[in-house]
Amino acid sequence: MATRKHSKSTSPIDSPDRRRLPPLLRRAWYGLNQAFRRRIAYTGATPDQFTALRCLTEADPKGITQGDLTQMMTSDPNTIASLVERMEAAGWVLRRPHEKDRRAYRIKLKTSGKHLYQELRKLAVQLQAGVLDVLPESKREDFLTHLAAVAEACREAAELSPKRRR
Q: Would you call 87 helix, strand, or coil by DSSP?
């Protein structure tokens, strides 16, 4: 009996001859993160700090809570608390007790954080343009739309998954 080679579209989703989502996402994220980390190293900032600066820039100018920042960055509270402490020590953000919730802090960008964000943003935009240059210009927006849909599906899958197994 002759063996028939399966085409990539009919072979199982986890078949070694198919492209798989987790390794592709990891490779893309890792490469982008490393490239950006190297480009901004001279500033003393990290890619996560850039993301926090972007979130704070785009948020209410009065500031946001650490909980809000945690959600905006899709992170966990301990990571964000540590991130904000380092950014406060660097003089980029101001962290004050929340006026209504004694358990919360309100975080606000300082002028130095705004200037740093503008500098880092230029580098981020250049890197993004260079990376997306591998796609035809007519397909870039569709790619980002599809990637956003995949990211949302991943977020929903995480929310629906049990946190602990017994």
A: helix
Measured CA to CA in angstroms, residue 62 lies from 52, 83, 105, 109, 121 at distances of: 15, 20, 12, 9, 21
Measured in whole angstroms, the distance separating CA 33 from the mean position of its chain's CA atoms is 9
**Three-class secondary structure of residue 111 per DSSP:** helix
Tell me which fold the domain 44-125 belongs to.
Answer: Arc Repressor Mutant, subunit A (1.10.10)
Q: Which amino acid is at 2?
A: A
Domain ranges of the chain: 44-125
pLDDT in tens, 50-88: 999 999 999 988 889 999 999 999 899 999 999 999 999
CA 65 – CA 105 distance, rounded (Å): 5
Residues pairing with 64 in the sheet: 107
